[in-house]
Amino acid sequence: MEDRTIYEMIGGESTIRKIVETFYLIVQKNPMIGPLFPEDITPVMEKQYLFLTQFFGGPPLYSEQYGHPMMRARHIPFEITKERADAWLICMKTALTQIDLDENLQSILLERLSGPAYHFINS
Ligand code: HEM
């Protein structure tokens, strides 16, 4: 059994940074979900960096700043359909491929993210 966290397995802070930076460039160009995001994406990237760090087993950076994640609730203002959840995950898959993350790790990350992505569907 692998007893390291996903955070450790993927290479910690620098990898999460790369994922987030690559992911939002792709998201911004995606016609299905790009328009939901503000033009200045930097604050969203920072929050996502804090959140994914914690979500993958690193230090609880998001909660230290923003309290309980309540991620489904935080997505309620946005119309999230099944198609948009799919698009979000495809953008993430593209980002993980672009940064050359190991394929087994890609599958683990996508599997872990697909739970919340489909759980956030609200429309
Ligand atoms: C299912 C498709 C998804 C869509 C369409 C979506 C869209 C959005 C949008 C529009 C925002 C707000 C941006 C702003 O501040 O104006 C946001 C925030 C955020 N999303 Fe998503 N999201 C999705 C899935 C996810 C998933 C799967 C995760 C992580 C597991 C996630 C993590 C976050 C985080 C951490 C924030 C910042 C929350 C905060 O304001 O503190 N999102 N998302």
Automatic annotation (TrEMBL):
It holds the Pfam family Bac_globin. It comes from the Bacteria. Keywords: Heme, Iron, Metal-binding, Transport. Its cofactor is heme. The keyword Heme applies. Belongs to the truncated hemoglobin family. Group II subfamily. This is Globin. It comes from Chengkuizengella axinellae.
